[in-house]
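ugh ok fine here u go
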Amino acid sequence: MISSREGTHRLRTFIAILSLFCGFFSASIWIVNSKAVWTHVLSIVNVRSSWTIDVGEFELNPFGTSLSIVKLSLKNEVQNKEISIDDLRIRIRPLGLLRGKLIFDEFQLNGVNLSLPPKGKKVERERKRLKISKLILLKNIIIDEGLISQLSISFGSQTKLFTDEIRLSLESGILRGTELNVRTDGLVVSKDGDSKISAGMLNLDAATELSRWHTEFPYADNLNGKLKMSDVNAEGLMIDEISAEAAYRDFIVGLKDLSLIVNGRKLVGSMRADTKEETFDIDINIDKPISLPHIVRPLKTLDTSGAMSGNISMSGKGFIPSTTDGEGEIRVTHAFGASADFPITIATGVSWENGVFNLRNARVVAGEDILSLVGTIDT
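structure:
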């Protein structure tokens, strides 16, 4: 039987141990979050790294496995790259660590700015794949629903990509590849301050092999899945919806079963693009007439708006419609807006460069009249 004196002693011992534990717990959090501590840690990291890291506010809960950072910036002057994040919040599920998994219950970034150097002369060099340590880490990351708000990516001072919001999920399996889902809302690509291409929504549901990812932008490689876009505006050409079976590998984008809906009319075809060389091949069938504000780009000498149907096959260089160069074969029927009751059929080879269109062996049919043309149109 335990005496009252022994019981009191054990209770005091328990209270003392509990107090020490609580003190250690509080001290650990205070030390970790002390500005002097993480400032010292950053100074060591900055000396040993090519990146300069700066943090405005920092809060880490080592026991609750959550991290919050305000005003995070990373700068690499040698590579001319810079990253800034207004607000970062992540929370990890502790039980996931027992399975060897890094499971994010919360993954939110707000006000992300990524500055990359402008494209210069192409220098052939071997791309570096991810180190095995990073690969193992990525294979064990699970993000149920990450959120990136107000993302801006600048390529020099001319080209810029902006999104209102990106939602993403990432998960790898033991016997399967990595599943990646990305939904982007409010996408705008601009050049020299002018919007070139925008989309209300872009969704990619794909599988990927992390072993083929690289250390340079856009990092991901070997993607296969379904692509869908809506409310697309390509320099005045409005496209209600785009969908396709998409593949990306070694800078090559392939779109099979490509479907475009313009003013309620469906176009089908395929496309292949080399994002490194900025070249493309595209084939489009227009079974039912669609309304166009202009053909390729607005012309100063001719109003080309109207309704078009037929087939267009093109290959060229450049992804901004008004600045592409290339050639192709066109066989279309076009009812110009100014004379919609008198459609014309055109079959021609065509090439264009610096705004000058060259027609090769063009055959124009308007009613019972047939006209052969060879010439140029300077826009």
